[in-house]
Amino acid sequence: MVTVGVRLPCFRLAAALRHTLSPDASAYLIERTARRVVEATDAAALAGVRPGMPLRAASRLLPRAAVVVEDAARAARAWRRMLGVLAPLPAPVEDGGPGLAFVPIPRGDRPERWFGRVRDRLEPLGLPVRCGAGANRFVAFVATHRAGDAVCRSGAEAAFVADAPLDLLGIDDDVALRLRLLGARTLGDLAVLPPSYLRRFGGDALRLHELAHGCAAVRR
Questions:
Q1: Which of 47, 56, 142, 180 is deepest in the core (most CB within 10 A)?
Q2: Which helix (H) or strand (E) holds 104?
Q3: 11-69: which CATH architecture?
Q4: Under DSSP, is residue 12 helix (H, G, I), strand (E, B) or coil?
């Protein structure tokens, strides 16, 4: 089984602003309570702003960027409408949270064909769309962060995700910091850590190990 990932970059940011952003806009979305970055435009990311970063640190990097407070209810409503747009696809559409969906496609079908179907549904709405595919939801999610429409071939999952940053894990900030202190910056770095190291992270240890090898599901 192959899963197609569909990601709409900065969807929650656009929902809070009530309009899409130009690719070169310097802006980022922060949580209402924790005051940490949730999403950042490409321009903001190039300056070093990344999800999970405290507002104070992001402000030092981009003092003139537009800072937008997340509106979770608005994003959820907008995303339900987008899922409705995708619903006519001839395969079930799985909700991955605002801005992210997965489509398990029939065995033997070409992912590229489904990328076209997805874009036919979404691009007329003026939304940026990134697609990717892999053997499971997590690999498909990583694929949507690659240039172009990346497809991970069967059996190559661990190598495919190896250079993905820890930011894609969706783990707590303190866990991410502890992993970086162990020298892990990418999933490949995490994959080579001895299991005894990962047991320090309690119930997340097995999940982290699976993700680092291209297994399991994405958490958002």
A1: 142
A2: strand 100-105
A3: 3-Layer(aba) Sandwich (3.40)
A4: helix
Q: What would the CATH number be for the domain defined by 2-8+72-140?
A: 3.30.70.270
pLDDT at 218: 57
Give pLDDT, residue 217: 60
At 220 the pLDDT is 54
Cβ neighbors of 185 (< 8 A, separation 6 or more) are 165, 166
- Residue 131 — φ and ψ, nearest 5°? -120, 155
- The CATH code of domain 159-212 reads 1.10.150.20
- Domain ranges for the chain, please list them: 2-8+72-140, 11-69, 159-212
The answer to whether residues 149 and 112 touch, using CB atoms and an 8 Å cutoff, is: yes
Tally of CB atoms within 10 A around 5: 28
pLDDT of residue 147: 82
Q: Which H or E element spans position 114?
A: helix 111-122
The phi and psi torsions of 160 (rounded to 5 degrees) equal -65, -40
Listed as ranges, residues in the chain with pLDDT below 50 are none
Residue 18 · residue 77 · CB < 8 Å: no
- pLDDT at site 52: 84
Q: What is the pLDDT of residue 30?
A: 96
